[in-house]
């Protein structure tokens, strides 16, 4: 225990290391991969992101009746690897640095484009 | 004396993951141990056969939450050897840096858990506080704290540029300062020594014949470390394995503690010597034939074998993790010890059951 005394005295006068979340949040790092931002107006529904997603979080399905392509993004299945961003030819996807808030229900994001 | 058999785990405050040890005791002394595994099997090897080979990097990362980067590195180096490509020198250095940061955060987590297992709560919290610096460094450089997803077949996906380098140096300096306060407590404190010295003895010959790996082997006096093979950039960093001759839980703890110090030095050295250049090259063919690779995880040697048939999917991926090799040694360490020492001895091999069962 004497070996710890210097540390203990320091800790006694130092402030707490933890934060009162969610009142105080840690500042995000500029490179943080926290949420996938999608811009439907820039998207051409080419389907590359759906093909290369390792977690199948992005899916694109063709609706032959209405001649539309339905895109579904499940943020709970997403592993935030940012591979879709690397491969998107139109820059319709971007990574956000702010982490998603905790939630009590799961929902997927649906968008549709012309086939 | 009547014998009593009772379960230790799978849910136990000292075990971070689910493994059961069926202990047979005479009074307070353990006479027989039977491990029961299978609580955390996820079928990752089978899933790897169904994925395109490039997606398996993300799957392999999820074998273990602590040494995730090293799992990805192992898989990438394996596929690179099968597709006959070589990662650029800068990527090799970056892989080394992130591997060593993973090792530091794994060892700091384990040191904290060990302190907790013998009731030293304050030391536990200080270890984890120091570990936060490393996790912040990982998030700053890669974008994620635990599962980095930066290793890719042919190189890495992001860089530590000249702007970020001084910040990493600053973080390493801050971590070293924290470590300087913790190191003497683990190395010399009476409480720590009383609970670890002479506990869980694994003689030198038996450590080798049972096929133990990692700090368990090096704590029994064998200078064997897969980093000596020189994968990534280890061949250019004058790496020497850390060896202790005590053969007990204290020696294994000291190996890990000294490895933390060594890893910090390796990170700093790799940062200073990192050459300029590209980050990744593209594989122009699908994996074909067989490949096998060994890398050093924080817990020991990780072996991966793959067989490809020239298509986008692998025929077989086999992962042998270090805890799998260390469990037989645990069954030799436990008989003869007191029940109160079982948690400390079990933790001394740093069991990672999620790795073992995949």
Descriptive terms for the model:
heterodimer; A: alpha+beta; Alpha-Beta Plaits; 3 helices; 5 strands; B: 358 residues; Cytochrome-c3 Hydrogenase, chain B; three-stranded antiparallel sheet; 15% strand
Description:
The complex is a heterodimer of chains A (115) and B (358). With 115 residues, chain A is an alpha+beta fold. Chain A has a domain at 34-100: Alpha-Beta Plaits (2-Layer Sandwich), CATH 3.30.70.20. Chain A has helices spanning 5-13, 48-52, 83-87, and strands at residues 35-38, 58-63, 68-73, 93-96, 109-114. A three-stranded antiparallel sheet of chain A has the order 2-3-5. In chain A, strands 1-4 form a two-stranded antiparallel ribbon. The longest helix of chain A is centred in the first third of the chain and has 9 residues, at 5-13. Chain A is elongated. The termini of chain A are far apart. Chain B is an alpha+beta fold and 358 residues long. Chain B has a single domain (40-357), classed as Cytochrome-c3 Hydrogenase, chain B (Orthogonal Bundle), CATH 1.10.645. Chain B is 47% helix and 15% strand. Chain B is built from 13 helices and eight strands. Chain B has helices at 44-50, 56-61, 68-82, 89-117, 121-142, 165-188, 190-196, 204-209, 215-218, 249-273, 322-333, 342-348, 353-357, and strands spanning 3-8, 20-26, 29-36, 151-152, 155-156, 288-297, 300-309, 314-320. Chain B has a three-stranded antiparallel sheet with strand order 1-2-3, with no helix packed on it. In chain B, α4 runs antiparallel to α5. The model of chain B has no long low-confidence stretch (mean pLDDT 89). The A-B interface holds A 1, 3-4, 6-8, 10-11, 17, 29, 31-33, 54-55, 79-82, 86, 95 and B 51, 55, 58-59, 122-123, 126, 129, 132, 136, 139-144, 147, 149, 157-158, 181-182, 184-185, 188-191.
